[in-house]
Structures are given as structure tokens and as C-alpha cells.
Amino acid sequence: MSRKLTALLLAMLILVGAMGLKTVVAAHSNGTVMMANGGGPFPPVQNGGGPFPPVQNGGGPFPPVQNGGGPFPPAGAQ
Amino acid sequence: MPGSFIYWLWSLESILEVVVLVCALSRHSFRRYLCLNLYMLSSLLVSAGRYWALSQHGLRSNEYKYFYFYSDAVLTIFLYLALITLYLRVFDEMNVEKYVRFAAVLLLAGTALFSYGVVQQSSNRMLTGFFFELSQNLYFVGLVLTYVLWGAILKLRETRTQLIQLVLSLGIYFSAFAASFALGNMFPGDYRFLGYVVPVFGCLLPLAWAYAFWKLTPDARMSTARLAVVPR
Known about the structure:
The complex is a heterodimer. By secondary structure, chain A is mainly α. Chain A has 1 helix and no strands. Chain A has one helix spanning 2-25. Chain A starts with a helix and ends in a 53-residue tail after the last helix. By secondary structure, chain B is mainly α. Chain B has a single domain, classed as Rhopdopsin 7-helix transmembrane proteins (Up-down Bundle), CATH 1.20.1070. Chain B has helices at residues 4-26, 34-57, 62-90, 97-119, 126-156, 161-186, 191-215. In chain B, helix 3 packs antiparallel against helix 6. Classes of the chains: A mainly alpha, B mainly alpha. At the A-B interface, helix 1 of A face helix 1, helix 2, helix 3, helix 4 and helix 5 of B.
């Protein structure tokens, strides 16, 4: 049991260390720099890496909402 | 379209990957380091697939982008598994295989959960973002894991030369990628230059592994004094 807990602790420590390291290294990241293995040239990407999918989970346009869903309350409503 | 130098490096990397597989097969090390060789094989297949996607659809096409990022995530998971088999090799005399596997699964699950947490807000491209984030996070996990393994090798006074060569080359590979990632973020204007440097690192890993499989026998030993000076 203690060995399993040690393995759990080590795994968590490594995860925290790795993510901390990534945070430090990518502190000024704009998302366009990436690491990738295997051959081939980098495809040009926008912020965050990965292409935009052609459609998002079903068709239809997005409703115009800002910061969270739901319609705007009427102006002056209490 | 990318320049001819990039194509040249890409071809060189693929040739070196074939050399690794041939060396491993000819020296009977294929099964001994199965995951490492499977990573090389999958990297070779991914290169062929990327070339096909690039020539058919072009660099800016969604097909190439999707293939590139999803295949990168698969390769990174293979590399992670290869690193875990090196852990199993180093700790094989301590009968802790079960715990190493347990920790490896936990770490992979934790990294996936962390990646999910990062991308869950951008629901319009959830799956793509998740695989991209997982791949990037696994690089850093691999980097830390390699340094921890190197510490364990020094502590346990591991003397198998081939194993040490494989671990050190992996450490240099991860470190070089992390350094280029950091430099790319610090000097975003010079990223084009890094685009030429990074594929060179990609060639160094198969070169080092080919050397390890071809020149070093599995039973070759190194004196511990050459690894570290132990204070008395």
C-alpha cells in the first residue's frame, strides 16, 4: 500500500513539476510556437495550435452572445 | 511550400529512422526495446502519411493540419511509452514493475485531465485543442521524467552502456525541444530560424539510437566512475 502511495505521490510531483516548467517556459507564449516530433514542416496555425474544424458540432450559425450564454436582459431592468 | 532544406532534413530523418530499425533488427535488440522501435516505426509511417497529405492537399490545407497534429499526439504517446519501458529496464532488478506501470498510467491520466481542464473553455474546437494540449504537456512530462530517470541511473549506479546512451539521447532530445520552445516564445520574430533548427534535433535522436544499437552490445558495461564521482 505504501509503495502504491509512493508511486501516486511521485506521479503527482512529476505532473506538477512538468506543468510548472511549462508555465515558466511558455510565460510569454502567444500560442503560435509549438513542439512536434516526426518529420514534416509545421503547418501555419493561428493562436493555440491546431486548425479550426470546418463545422462546430452541428450546423447553424452561432447566436450573438458575449461571455456566457443566455440572452441579454433588457436595459434598465432591476 | 517549405524550402528544399526542410525536405532534405525530413528525408534524412526518415532514412535515419530506417537505419535505427535495421540496426535493432540486425543486433537482435528489436524486442528488447520494443516500444522504442515501435516509436521509430510509427514515426516513419507518420512521415510517409504527412508527405502524402502535404503533396495531395498542400501546407495550408485543413487535411494536412489535422493529420499533422493528430499524428503528433499519437507519436508523443508512443514516445511516452518508450520512456516508461526505459524505466522498466532500469528498475527491472527491484521488482517494482507493477508500481512503475501504475505511476505511468496515473501520470498519463493526470496529464490528460490537466489538458482537458485547459481546453474545456474553447468548446468550438474541443477535440483538436485537447490533442494539441495533451501532446505539448506530454513533452514536458517526458522531459521531467527523463531527468528523474537520469537521477535514478546515477543513484543506482547503472552501468549498462546501451541503456545509458538511450536515456541520455532522449534527455538531449527533450531538452533541445524545450529550449527551442522557450526561445521561440521569447523571440517570436526569430521563429522562422527555429523552424530550421528543430528538424535538426529530430535527426539527432535516431542517429544516437542507431549508434546505440549498432555499436553497443546489450551486455556492454561502463564503469560508474565515468558517470559520477561519488563522494566518500
